[in-house]
Design brief:
Strand content: 15-25%
Number of helices: 5
Structural class: alpha/beta
Largest sheet: 7 strands, mixed
Radius of gyration: 16 Å
Order of helices and strands: EEEEHEHHHEHE
Shape: globular
Strand order of the largest sheet: 3-2-1-4-5-7-6
Distance between the termini: 34 Å
Number of strands: 7
Length: 160
C-alpha cells in the first residue's frame, strides 16, 4: 500500500497565526516554530514546501527581491504561494501619507517593525516575474467604498 505524503505549508511572518506546518517570524509569538529575519536567506532546503503563505508581510521586508527569490527557491516545482500586501492605489493611502496612515492604524510589535513599501499591481508583476501564471486580485475590507472602483477602494492585493 502506498502512503500519500502530506503537503508541507510554510507561513512566513506568521505573527500569532497557527496556519501552516512551519511558521516563521522574527519574534517568538507562541505559534512560531522558527525565528528568523526574513530579509536573510531562509534556513530551509530548496524545494521543501508545497505552499508558501505570507499575510501582510511583504511591505515589512527591506529586501523584497531576496524575499521573492527565497520563496521561489523553497517552493517545490508546481508549488503554490499566497501573499497579501497593501494596495498603493487604496484611497486611504492616497489621502494621507502612507507612513502616517500606518502609524495611526497599525500596532507595531517592536520599533523595527516598519512598513518599507507600498505596491501596485504592476510592481508585484515585476517583482514576481519568476513565477508563472500569476493571479493578482484586489481584496476589500468590509468597509468597501462602494462608489469607488476596486483599484481605489480595496486596501489589499493578493498574489497567487
Amino acid at each position: 500500500m502506498r502512503i500519500k505524503r502530506l503537503k508541507m505549508i510554510l507561513n512566513l511572518g506568521c505573527g500569532t497565526e497557527d496556519y501552516g506546518d512551519v511558521r516563521v517570524d522574527f519574534l517568538d509569538t507562541g505559534t512560531t516554530t522558527h525565528i528568523q529575519d526574513l530579509n536573510q536567506t531562509f534556513q530551509f532546503e530548496s524545494n521543501s514546501f508545497d505552499k508558501v503563505y505570507s499575510n501582510s508581510v511583504l511591505e515589512h521586508i527591506r529586501n523584497c527581491g531576496n524575499f521573492v527569490d527565497e520563496i521561489h527557491r523553497v517552493l517545490k516545482k508546481g508549488g503554490k504561494f499566497f501573499i497579501r500586501t497593501d494596495n498603493a492605489n487604496y484611497f486611504g493611502f492616497l489621502l494621507k501619507n502612507h507612513q502616517s496612515y500606518i502609524e495611526n492604524t497599525y500596532k507595531h510589535h517592536t520599533e523595527d517593525d516598519l512598513h518599507y513599501y507600498l505596491f501596485k499591481e504592476e510592481h508585484l508583476r515585476n517583482l514576481f516575474k519568476k513565477f508563472k501564471d500569476l493571479k493578482i486580485t484586489l481584496t476589500c475590507s468590509s468597509k468597501k467604498l462602494f462608489w469607488l472602483p476596486n483599484k481605489l477602494s480595496c486596501m489589499h492585493i493578493e498574489i497567487r
